[in-house]
Amino acid sequence: MRKLAVISSGTKGIGRATAEKFFFNGFDIVTCARSADDLLQLKEELEEKGEGEVFFRPTDMARKEEVLAFAAYVKGLNRPVEVLLNNTGLFLPGSIHTEPEGNLEKMIETNLYSAYHLTRALVDDMKARKQGHIFTTGSIAGITAYPNGGSYSISKYALLGFTKCLREELKEHGIRVTSILPGATYTASWEGVDLPRERFMKAEDIAEAIYAAHSLSPQTVVEEIVLRPQLGDI
């Protein structure tokens, strides 16, 4: 039987690239997004090209009850989760002292709480098996503050702290935990920006790094992966 990878927000950008990478390397995929049409399109495109299966549930990962419903869907498959990629993210620009009211809450709910609740819901089976790998998609903004980063940077610093704590808590249970900290990656959020695409990293490169980290032997863990465009941050 193929192994199972759970990837939140897997229809676009880094999530989709990672879903494709694992799917074509022997994994079945469970994913979610808000658009049922996008999820169905992903399933059809991957299953047409490969031998595995893609499972999905439309989900708003900013809502705790929806995250828990997605986790229940995953557990209802009655299959062990080998890889979990907490990939849901939202970017709203603004400075702390001038950004719109509610920016912090929106990005904490989406960028941090989604990972927190989904991990808590799925980790017990990993602990019982003493096996599994949990990734979180953070950001350079979680290690380097910058103007107009505001609450986005706060949420990504918090996500890195969550991942560091998780690493310490789960090492004795045989579960590997890895933070992915990419700089500017060309995804839908950058469309329309007046910069050449060559200035950005490719989502496929981030997926390659995630897969490579997982492919190491179980006694080795890559704790953090920092990736930047060759010419530096944007």
From TrEMBL:
Q: Does the keyword Magnesium apply?
A: no
InterPro entries for the chain: NAD(P)-bd_dom_sf (IPR036291), Sc_DH/Rdtase_CS (IPR020904), SDR_fam (IPR002347)
Gene3D superfamilies, sorted: NAD(P)-binding Rossmann-like Domain
> One of this protein's Pfam families, by short name?
adh_short
Q: Which UniProt keywords apply?
A: Oxidoreductase
Q: Which family does it belong to?
A: Belongs to the short-chain dehydrogenases/reductases (SDR) family.
> What PANTHER family does the database record attribute to this sequence?
ALCOHOL DEHYDROGENASE
Q: What is this protein called?
A: Short-chain dehydrogenase
Name the species this protein comes from. Roseivirga thermotolerans
Taxonomy of origin reads: Bacteria, Pseudomonadati, Bacteroidota, Cytophagia, Cytophagales
